[in-house]
Amino acid sequence: MATRHLASWVHNLKYSDVPHVVVNSAVSSFYNWAGCAIGGSKHHATVIAHDALKPFFGPPQSSILGHKGKLTIDAQHAALLNGIASHVHDYDDTHLDTIIHPTGPVASALLATAEWKGGYSGQDFLLALITGIEAECKLGLAVWPEHYDVGWHITSTTGSIGAAVAVSKLLGLSEDQTVHAIGLASTQVVGLREMFGSQTKSFHPGRAAQNGLMAAVLAQGGYTSSEIALEAKRGWANVVGVTKSDLGSSLERWLGFGAGAKESLGLHTTTQPGRWETERNSFKPFPCGIVIHPIIDGCVQIHSEFESQSFDLKDIEEVHVTVHPLVLELTGKKKPKDHLESKFSVYHGAAIGLIYGKGTPAQYEDEVVQDPMVISVRDKVNAVAEQSFRADEAKIVVTMKDGKKLEKHVVHAVGSSEVPLTTELLEEKFRDQCEVVLGNSLGATSTALWNVEDVKDMRDLSSIL
Amino acid sequence: MATRHLASWVHNLKYSDVPHVVVNSAVSSFYNWAGCAIGGSKHHATVIAHDALKPFFGPPQSSILGHKGKLTIDAQHAALLNGIASHVHDYDDTHLDTIIHPTGPVASALLATAEWKGGYSGQDFLLALITGIEAECKLGLAVWPEHYDVGWHITSTTGSIGAAVAVSKLLGLSEDQTVHAIGLASTQVVGLREMFGSQTKSFHPGRAAQNGLMAAVLAQGGYTSSEIALEAKRGWANVVGVTKSDLGSSLERWLGFGAGAKESLGLHTTTQPGRWETERNSFKPFPCGIVIHPIIDGCVQIHSEFESQSFDLKDIEEVHVTVHPLVLELTGKKKPKDHLESKFSVYHGAAIGLIYGKGTPAQYEDEVVQDPMVISVRDKVNAVAEQSFRADEAKIVVTMKDGKKLEKHVVHAVGSSEVPLTTELLEEKFRDQCEVVLGNSLGATSTALWNVEDVKDMRDLSSIL
């Protein structure tokens, strides 16, 4: 029932069914994704994957983003490489209720498909993107939090299915074919949390994009799968959510084929509008695990006071931060040795906020992570968990050698649903990431992305990217 | 420790370390695999996958087996398609302690790699194949049976890792690179048991082959992963074996880095020889779930008595079979509607044994499954579970309308470790599968496969296949 219901919803959804606020969120999600994919295209991990897999590349169908002069390869590998690039700086988007980074797997598969086939408008693209993001987040909600606690990287485990339904929607698969695409995607479960801190973390959304693309293409060709892949006794939800009880009800609640659950998939009637997860997507102001964001936010604010009051970093005696317990579980690396590990260090986050007054990919490069001055501030940071704190809350107290204290209590971090990233900040983030790669064409590219809804053929847009 | 230990074992194993009886099993495993891959190359599922994915094919590097006139595509897709073909008739091999079909994922990845790169001898190939099969089966034993019970298709969940270590071995990766290859493979967990009975089941070993090949190639290029992927708290064993307790000890027992466990990985010294899982591989005499084999075996024997005593099928009143409980759980489909479902019907297995006196892929074609005569015999079959029976044991009682009874108690089915398939039967199976495809060259191909150990360059062998 869950699989069939999801396929039917995806198949039947029309652009006019989607509230405009949801479309706007999808546009921002795509904009943010494109910036991340372009910005991550020069990262070591992306380059290694490109070079290692080059012998297998098929015909030129789809672009690898971030290359001056078009570089096109087969759609499968383009989906993988753009997916890796979009996640490699840990700078992408976040569906806060599940900490899924939803756009990576879906947009990577979808843009590659749109370019390969041609003839799809910006609205076709956005509608498909929305079906994918909704599918990922609803399925994530259904297995949350046990699925994540056990050790699955929820972005990619749901991402394969999100990418599959999105590509199914774009290619115009029938409802039955979409059922089989969901089955083929659900059986490819990629992503262990143990990989956090290594390049394999960014491989996850890339591989999820490929999994979904392959699933949809095979299903379109007539390859068969289970028709109850999501809800069966030994199907997706029960296997990847094995420590959670009553997954049947949970699927029913979030996919909404029970009696009008408020949180169900967005519906076509105004009497039962459902809940759109795309609208709840947020964008990272800092390129690291989202739980560190309130600490960086607070430290950036304290940095301004340092500057205005002419304090010297050398005079810091101690930096005491109070955080949600998950912060230490996920990001407790006291002495990160390189850029990948620094993403999982609340201590590094606090230090760069205080020293630089910002947290962009530049503050996570190896040279910064290994800089003695940064290390000296980092070593002064102590972090304590406080059960009553929310995940987007933090308190920072900097004690100077003369006993003076600077304090900051961040109630909701920038980038949270209460303090969303403004369009200006999104554009600043885009500029930060893409300036080196895009040069003069940065402004035009940014504008073209914001106008995706009006694009006649997505091939035109990707030729700009 | 488990990951490092496995990588070190793989990296250091020499051909001279492997007992010849193990090499012989590897040769039989490869022979049986090649027959299945050739025989499955014309199956609907293989053809659909080929046609659907053709737009993405890269340069000609590796053969798709079973095509007259060489058909070469990129190694990644060749691994996928040969992997699908080798499993699609459910006719491959079985490591009975885990019901893993070990050769499919490993040989599919390995042959594609050997052809792509060139210069690898038959001994290089067999040594790599053995490392892959050992890795799969040892890891399977470590998470068995909870992992399978929950709903994972253990052939492909361990197959990605087996394929990765085999390709790592063949390509000569360092121990460190092999560690990362294991990590990259372990995070790609493919295969839900819910897919049994659909074409997606055969997709699993094919995708596992690709996962492993990609993992090894990325690791060779320098892509990093966890160094404790198998044993970490949120690593492979704990995540995919979450309902099993004490996985650390289990890994230690089967990989054997504890104090000289008898079942450890085969070692280089005669004082601690370990246990070789390759030697325990078995080959299916019938193209269906292995638990049905004792029933078919018994019914084939009764068929001979029918013939010698001139009984008529129409005079059967009832066929009563007593089986291990797992038989009904896995293969209890009373009214299979097509060839895929018939593989999971103990009733169909009994009927074709009685009617045809054999069980080859021909007895599982749609026309046979839907034949009224077959249906009439199938409908007379009743199956009862008996807790005290082993999985390779069955009792069949055929009652004729005149009250006469024919009985057969199969203590160990043909193909079990007690009654292994003879070389003659393996060759007969090869002939059955490959005659249509290979025609006149069948004999030469069969001989070439048996002589794989003497091959100078595996490219020479694949040009014959």
From TrEMBL, chains A, B:
| Positions of the MmgE/PrpD N-terminal domain | 4-240
Gene3D superfamilies hit by this protein: 2-methylcitrate dehydratase PrpD
Q: Could you say which protein family the record assigns here?
A: Belongs to the PrpD family.
Q: Supply the source organism for this entry.
A: Lachnellula suecica
Enumerate the spans annotated as MmgE/PrpD C-terminal domain: 286-440
State what protein this is by name. Uncharacterized protein
Q: Name one GO molecular function term.
A: lyase activity
Output the PANTHER family linked to this UniProt entry.
2-METHYLCITRATE DEHYDRATASE, 2-METHYLCITRATE DEHYDRATASE-RELATED
